[in-house]
Design brief:
hydrolase; eight-stranded parallel β-sheet; glycerophosphodiester phosphodiesterase activity; PLC-like_Pdiesterase_TIM-brl; TIM Barrel; 379 residues; EC 3.1.4.46; single chain; glycerophosphodiester phosphodiesterase
Amino acid sequence: MRGIALLCTATVAALPALAVSSAAQPDNAAKRPNAERHHPKGDETIQVFGHRGAPGYRPEHTLASYELAARTGADHIEPDLVSTKDGVLVARHENEISGTTDVAEHPEFADRRTTKVIDGEEVTGWFTEDFTLAELKTLRATERLPELRQRNTVYDGRFEIPTFQEVIELKRELSHELGRRIGIVPEIKHPSYFRSVGLAIEPRVVHALNRNGLNHPHAEVAVQSFEVGNLRWLDRRLRVDLVQLVWSSGAPYDFVESGDPRDYADMVTPAGLREMSEYADWVAPVSTMILPRDEEGYLTEPTSLVADAHEAGLRVVTYTVRAENAFLPADFRTSEVDSAYGDVFGFLRALFGTGVDAVFADQPDIAHHARQEWEPHSA
């Protein structure tokens, strides 16, 4: 579909056929005409994506975190999706869960600790694909960054691991209560790995969106991935936005596996962005690819990435804005205390000034207030 594939045909063909449910559509039934693509418009409101919910205030990827994000101004909430042993999609940033749950405190699961190779890296811990959903539901979420977000630790042990379906239902309930449509932007985590162990995430995402009536262009849904082949596969089955995530180094792991020599840097050249627009609606670069930093952490001149992406017909959402000094450019740090808040409003103004269409934020209320201040200024 739409031009030369970024991934070899053999790799794309390796994605499983969509056979999870009779509700699923045939390969080309949901194929999106070009007219359905969203093109950048200068008068559109900057969007706020609640990165893993509102993890600046609640442990990430919990219903409490997603709810708080929506209530404090996020336009979209972001569940990262991994699979259980019995094929249920749950929200965790990684399939290794020792850093975000109390699994290590459960002696009944001590023998599940193991070492695996995930996307070429050796990882030791406990993995969602080794637990049934019922077993995972006995665990409780914990704060991932306790040294920086000590106040969040008061919520340790209070929230379950949510399923993708539970997040969709929360999105629906909050949209009704708040009187505005709350979007959802799931990220497919480690797609090549999960496909290799027989737990492909993509067909289950399609099934979930179909079942919930969310597979249409106005559903306020965008599906993300750091890989490419799975987005091309989804482009033939979904009518929602697709988001190509890119990083400042390295390459999509499906490129690595297939021997494709290109990396993320190649993908964000003008030619690479034009090719990306054949299957994606958004490009999502880390903020340093838009506002680079020098060796001392200070901002240098902006790159042309935002303008190049818009020229290719892509919207741009950048990640991740966090209020703590530890994450801010040196220009906006207010002290040497990593956990203290810096001038995050100043950093957001700098990002907005590059023309980005959206930002991922750990404190979505701050991003919401910053865009309210910015938009009259930019009119």
